[in-house]
Amino acid sequence: MAIADTAGHAPHTGKPTGLGRWLFATNHKDIGSLYLWFSFIMFLTGGVMALAIRLELFSPGLQFWQPELFNQLVTLHGLIMIFGAIMPAFNGLANWMLPLMIGAPDMAFARMNNWSFWLLPPAALLLLLSFFVPGGAAASGWTMYAPLSTQMGMGMDMTIFAIHILGVSSIMGAINIIVTVLNLRAPGLTLMKMPMFAWASLITAYLIIAVMPVLAGAVTMVLTDRHFGTHFFNAAGGGDPVMYQHVFWFFGHPEVYIMALPAFGIISQVIPTFSRKRLFGYTSMVYATASIAILSFMVWAHHMFTTGMPATAQLFFMYATMLIAVPTGVKVFNWVATMWQGSLTFETPMLFAIGFICLFTIGGLSGVILSVAAVDTQLQDTYYVVAHFHYVLVAGALFSLFSAVYYWFPKMTGRMYSERLGKLHFWWSMVWFNVTFFPMHFLGLAGMPRRIPDYALQFTDFNSLATIGAFCFGLGQLIVLYNLLTSLRRGPPAVEHPWEGAQTLEWRIPTPAPYHSFAEAPEVDADDNGVIHAVRGGTHH
Q: 277 and which of 296, 342, 346, 496 could share a cystine (Cβ 3.0–4.6 Å)?
């Protein structure tokens, strides 16, 4: 792929420099990098809040925080991890990799892309500053259930405003992904030949557009209840606080898959690469991903089994929830079948991918247990639920993100990370993650409620163990920060093709990826999961 001299003009190779490059960025790689660094900062911020929560729970009694502040930490930890860390991280990866994977010159709407990123820092600032206003931050849990959320101080208003801004950012990012994937694919790369990461990003984008306005509606109703005399959720005025839960969870359950589907896409790229095999059952993977997305709209009330639902509704939501296990099981089976008799090597991205499969499956199994309405009545709002969704989200979203960052780091930077530190990061995280969250299953089964700063004496041992695990796990995340920062400056130059099993289009362009990838669309001869046989044309700068 030689440098193009299109239409008699020399190519535009210069890239902007200084602060302007980042403030006014329209290049998908720059915006992707901004997203990734922002999400990592938010991850550390939310992580510090988690450690503050665990510090209080190390032993019974109130040691460090008043219950009000404890509840604020719980609430902001959840909101920051979901809207500030996980979602922007997947958006950043999609920004970086989608155009390279599908042969697009850039994202479809470059300026909108810039705007969707720069909405995030002010929203994060609003959330963090809410700690310092009279009454403190929102203390209603990340779900912001009414009537609690209708009674709090101005920290709640700041949270509602922040959520609106974050929602607008997500929707713009999603529109960009959909238009890019549908309109800017390279000739020859049909939808059923796209890499699974592109499919997962596309389906996730549709989910975001479907449910983000629902969340906006829920928090807007809370806002009008608070300030404009409406009674949507005020029982005294004829409203219904349980209606808030219905509206919220209609957003909230698809939101879980907004955080899980991109993870599935990443794992479907990493596993074939280090197995040196084609992805097993590509077509079934695409349909499974779409099935999960559709089913995610039909299960929201499994979060509400204890609200006094009729038995028939409980049965419907119970069976619909169990049904989601089928396409998820198809995915796990296909990943294992891809590795079966492959020529496996265990570099850091592969370790995190396998760790993801093991831990995500545990989280999925505890999810099936919680889907049984009669069992959920016992376990509702206990630490069993906390254990379940951390196995799904920390092991799911976070481990897949680590896998992706290590996997694409040489393509992004042109340098190799330290494999020794990467493996240390994996094993350290794997051990301490389980020390932190596995005991929570036992706490929940024994009846310890979540979101409480103090607890009965019989819960002491497991809580102390979980706190030690949390601090060690948190410390381990400094390993990846050190590894990436030192590798950026002093890492050995990456070879042109760092992973021999990688077959998708982004590995066909030079390493590191040039500032402008494709001046003209390449013509590709591709197989399923974006396995490239030949590329014609597609000059890049």
A: 342
